Amino acid sequence: MAVEIIDGGINAPAGFKTCGLRAGIKEGKTNKDMAMIYSQVPANVAGTFTRNIVKAAPVKWDSKVVFEEGTAQAVVINVAVANASTGLPGMKDAEDTAEYAAKKLGLKKENVLVASTGVIGFRLPMDKIKSGIDMLVPALSEERQAALDAANAILTTDTHKKEIAVTFEIDGKKATIGAMCKGSGMIHPNMGTMLSFITTDVDIDKDLLQKTLREVVSKTFNMVSVDGDTSTNDTCLILANGLLKNKKIEGEGKDLDEFKAALYTVAEFLAKNIAKDGEGATRLFTAHVVGAPDYETARILAKSIITSNLTKAAIFGRDANCGRIMCAMGYSGAEFDPDKTDVTIKSSEGSIKLVENGLNTDFSEEEALKILTPDEITAECDIKSGEFEATAWGCDLTYDYVKINADYRS
Question: Which residues carry out catalysis?
Answer without folding.
Answer: 193
